[in-house]
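Reopening this ticket.

The earlier resolution said the output was attached, but the attachment link was broken on my side. Pasting everything inline this time so it's all in one place.
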Amino acid sequence: MKIRTGYILHFFTIFLVVVIFSDLAMAQRSRREEPKVKPFRSFLGKFTVSGSIGLGRTWHVHKVEGLGVIQNPGTAPLLFDASGPVTNPIQFGVANWVNNPTSVQDITVDTSSFYFSTDSIPVKFKAKGLNIPINLMVHYTFDRYRIGGGWSFEPYRIGKYHSNVYEDKIEPFNVNFNLSYYTRWYFMLGGEVIKTRRYMLVVDAKVGSYKLQKKHFNAELIEKGIFFNLGARMEKSLSEYVKIYIRPSLEFKNYKISFPEAPQSLTHHLPAFYTSIGLSWRLPDRRKCPISNCHTQINHYHGSKLYRSRMHPFWKWQDPDYGQNYPRLHKDKRKNKRKINPY
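Inline output:
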């Protein structure tokens, strides 16, 4: 048993020596073959700039409770205090309660008027809006995760509001503007879920603040919350640094608007669905080859420095392992066959 134990100890000693030296050799080899990229360039190469434009649909919804609604023929409905008996005229009412509530005095009540209290019958007003989001974003990639932020400008239009009760009695109404816009600042956090050679699926979330156009919305009467946007970004590589993508997303936001000269307020909910298409550019992590007539298609050395090729068109897929995947050699293309120097 002692002899066998000795053999076993010798065997493991030799094995450990071989493993240690092989690991050292591999480490030395990997260090020799590691591209010499400056730290600042390597850091820049983890940043990506994106721009997109899209189309969205917003559902504008608010619920009226504890107030009265009165509809006179040929006018937009008005809200009023229905806690007491209805008199003619109603002394005080509210118009434009979507964006800029204004007081209305002496509302006429006659046989053609239709009114009811929302204490017994709550009413929801709904409208559909059309949005065009224009977005700019920068994100930093580490491992499979992304963190960044951006800014967007979003023109939008709101359709007619319709009541969910007494549809034949309450007339649809429009807001008092045709076109307005949002501006936003947001924080983004995402992660790569699926990744292939040329395609990638990223799930991300955006959280931030939005600003309504002061011309159309009374900021003194409005209390805004944050918005939350959850989307899936499907990317396709055009080249080593450039991608196109499409991003469907769902968004949730709301704001509360108070009435002048009255204690009541309304909360407006704005759920939305967006589809955006965009282009992203990752900042190069190495300099372009300084030799103007260099036709090397892969990332390559000149001296001790590693450069990216000058032959990478941004609209074509570039495999950094073996260069541009041309269907035919450059010299064999029809336009170059008769040239003495096709390059």
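Reporter confirms the inline version is readable. Helices lie at 2-33, 39-44. Residues 2-33 form the longest helix (32 residues).
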